[in-house]
Cell shape-determining protein MreC (Hoylesella buccalis ATCC 35310), 287 residues
Amino acid sequence: MRNLIEFLAKHHHWFVFILLEAISFTLLFRYNSYQNSVWFSSANVVTGKVYEWSSQLEKFFSLATVNQHLTQRNLALEQKVVELSEKLTAVTKDSSYVKADVTQQLSQFKQIPAKVVSNSLKDANNLITIDKGSVDGVRKDMGVVSGTGVVGIVYLVSSHYAVVIPLLNTKSNVSCKIENRDYFGFLNWQGGSTDQAFLDDIPRHARFKLHENIVTSGYSSVFPPGILVGKILHVYNSPDGVSYRLCVQLATDFATLRDVSVIDNTLMKERIEVMRAARDSMEVKDN
């Protein structure tokens, strides 16, 4: 307290000066119309700029929520389009105009929207962390897709987060095929470019063209068949010369990946189990 009093006593003339200046400006702008209008206009300009900056800042920080709502809305609208297309096909008996896309393949599955909170691109074994976990219904070995194609497979799950092994991981191994041709192989990434991977084990007798789609084969309980993975960019011989190796331009842009969906694979697992049971039953009868 003593130091405060000494400080005020030592610099009291500055405080008196500031007080008198404040009184002077108040009298000047209050009782002089011209100065008052100048002050009012300037204050409005400054206030308007402050409000504009504040609004822009608020919009920027709300983009994450807006994107999440848009993603959920897009999924709902796309699924509605699929339902209407199926009804129209049933009535007209003509499905030639119905374009196959990711949404059509996923319309019968539950999808869990999620946001990417961490994404690595420079490592050999890249990982992606999403903001949904076991409390949201996410489980290990569920497939993850974006609006453009396959992203990866859920590897680890906690209550509120999950770690995904993306296609850009040397341990990733997704069964894929050439669309409408049924030649299948396994997609793997060997490092380097983040927009390309390789599809191995395509038989030498296979007939296909560059830029044809590569889609999931459906031979596992992770992804249903027909989900877009990418397009054929180049064709090489395998190291042993008995098959083709296809360089695939990935459909998912991992550098800008923000919003994804986790596919509930309960129905796919049930289908695989039924197929295995039928196969086992047939083998028993043959014996």
